[in-house]
Amino acid sequence: MPPAVPAAPVASPWISDEGRRIRDQARKLIPLIRSQAREGERIAALTPDVLNALDGAGVFRMSMPVEWGGYGLGARDLIEVVSVLSEGDGSAGWAGFVGVGLKNLLAMDPRVVEEVRADAEGWVGPAIVGASVFATKVGAARAVDGGWMVRGRWAFGSGCKHARWALVGIAFDPAAAGRGSGRGVVVLRQEQYEILDDWDVMGLSGTASNSLRADDEVFVPAHRFLDLADFPLRLQQLHDRYTGIGFAQRGQASLLCAALTNIAIALGMARGALGCFAEQAVKRKPFSLPYPTIGDMASAQVAAGKALAMTNLAAAAIEGTADQIDARTAAGLDFTHEEDAEISLSIAYAANLCEDAISLLQKTIGSSTVSMSNPIQRFVRDVRVLTSHGAIRVDPLAEQNGRRVLGLPPFAMFGSAVPERSASTDNSQDKEPIRA
Known about the structure:
The structure is a single chain. The protein is of the alpha+beta class. Among the domains are: 17-104, Orthogonal Bundle (Butyryl-Coa Dehydrogenase, subunit A, domain 1); 245-419, Butyryl-CoA Dehydrogenase, subunit A, domain 3 (Up-down Bundle), CATH 1.20.140.10. It contains 15 helices and 10 strands. The protein has helices at 17-28, 30-35, 37-43, 48-57, 75-88, 90-98, 102-106, 110-119, 174-177, 231-236, 251-281, 298-330, 337-365, 375-387, 394-405, and strands spanning 128-131, 139-144, 147-154, 165-171, 183-189, 194-195, 212-221, 225-227, 413-414, 418-419. Helix 5 (75-88) packs antiparallel against helix 12.
């Protein structure tokens, strides 16, 4: 006889007790998150209540190593939590995603890692944020005795209003420095840069993704610098230094996990939009058809069903990839560059499915959703900004994969979404950054 079919869905074996606890706590926060989302847009940051609630739930410790008092969670745990936060508001989900960037710091010299760890003890919010780390436009640096003199402007410093430190990209002259690739990253203290009031955008307004600026040169000790060429190996070595499944990930798996956590925001927003749609459709009357409610309309029922299918398909791709990352990590395995590129395309496409589902739901209910008090309009705007993110745009990822399918030489990439950078191919921060 065939084995009995379980009465309930089989849960992923890669969801840990700690991940489940944080996810369930995050779900309890959805009413608070959603009620303060509009205020978060107004101040272009998380409200103090939401920031404290996320911190209390352990969101900012998810990606910290056990040695820091964190949880070192794996891929499936992270997307579980981030997607639930995003059901309330995409900016809250983005705050969870920002914490994943801590791995970039941990790849650096142990001295700066310890400086940040000690300084961030008891801090509410992320310990460090990144801005223009791998961007085409970065800051400028010159080598001096004992370190670097750095100045510049760095875009998209998500979470900067809540963080103690910042990791930023720099370009330098390797000939003058006597070493290096010409591109690197440095860690700046909060008092070494200014947060610009320039995060005035159509969506994800509560992410505090402001630009950072240091008009005058600031001194950065040598141990707070890392050449970009050394980054991949340093990320590979994290599993020898820190505890937790998230730190057992090899290089490609770690990069995929970061992209996946970002895309989980779209999945959560699609689920949130579908929940709002169901709640509103049974209360509102249609404008042009004689049904008691919008929910009684066949077209609304079809839209709900299609949105459910799109969301479920996206979830299968996103959650399946997370499980695969954790499974390979547990087996001591990584992904090939070809697998990384193909998976990155698939999960980016899943994010676009979520966007299509949200758009369908908004148009089906109609003009009542354009009110700024209606969370559906925020999901529409936020998911459009998310899928415009350079690292997860479908067409560039499709081109990269299409070259491989057609036998053309691949582009040199750091991960599947960021071209390898050098000072010879990039302009330094003498020019304004591209805000796109």
